[in-house]
Write a structure and sequence with these properties.
two-stranded antiparallel ribbon, 13% helix, 167 residues, alpha/beta, 11 strands, 2 helices, 7-stranded mixed beta sheet, Metallo-beta-lactamase, Chain A
C-alpha cells in the first residue's frame, strides 16, 4: 500500500480532500461534506519513529445526508465563537462534540459550543480513553443543564450502534 504522509494514497486525492468553504458531494450527491474550521494542532507522523510534520489546517465537518440528518463533527477543537456560524447554513440535527479536555475543549466549553450551535442532539466524544482526558459525560450533562441547553443528550456506550434520523 502506497502512503502519502500516513494516509493511503487512494484515499487522499482531489475527489476526497477539500478545504474550508468547499464541499464534497459523495455517493451521487446523497452525502455532502463541508469543511469548517477547528482550532487545534495538526501533525502526522510517517511512523512511530518519525517526528510529526505539519498536516494542514485542522477542520471540523458538517455532513449532510439526503433524507437523513445533518451532523456537525467538531473534530478535536478548542471552543471558539465562530462555531455559531456553522448553523448559518445548516440546521444541525446532531453535534458530535469533544469533551475530553487537555487536548480538546472540556465539558464547560463544550456546553458553550452546543449552546452556540443549537443542535437537536448532542453526542459527546473524545473523552475517557486515557488518563489525561479528564472530561466526563456527567460533567458535560451538568454544564448543559446550567446553560438551559435544549439539545437532547445522547451518550452511547462503547461499541453501541445508534440510529440517527433526520429532522
Amino acid at each position: 500500500m502506497k502512503l502519502a504522509l500516513g494516509y493511503p494514497a487512494e484515499q487522499a486525492d482531489n475527489d476526497t480532500t477539500g478545504a474550508f468553504g468547499g464541499q464534497l458531494r459523495l455517493l451521487d450527491g446523497d452525502v455532502t461534506v463541508c469543511f469548517v474550521p477547528a482550532w487545534h494542532g495538526s501533525g502526522i507522523a510517517k511512523d512511530e519513529n518519525s517526528p510529526p510534520v505539519y498536516a494542514g489546517n485542522p477542520s471540523g465537518l458538517v455532513i449532510s445526508i439526503r433524507g437523513g440528518p445533518t451532523i456537525y463533527n467538531t473534530g478535536d477543537t478548542a471552543f471558539f465563537s465562530d462555531m455559531a456560524r456553522v448553523a448559518d447554513y445548516n440546521i444541525i440535527d446532531i453535534m458530535l462534540v469533544c469533551i475530553g479536555d487537555h487536548f480538546t475543549m472540556g465539558p464547560i466549553r463544550a456546553a458553550d459550543a452546543v449552546k452556540l450551535v443549537n443542535p437537536r442532539i448532542a453526542i459527546p466524544m473524545h473523552y475517557g480513553t486515557f488518563p489525561v482526558l479528564t472530561g466526563t459525560s456527567e460533567e458535560f450533562e451538568r454544564e448543559l443543564k446550567k446553560r438551559e441547553v435544549k439539545a437532547e443528550l445522547r451518550i452511547p456506550k462503547v461499541g453501541e450502534t445508534i440510529a440517527l434520523a433526520g429532522a
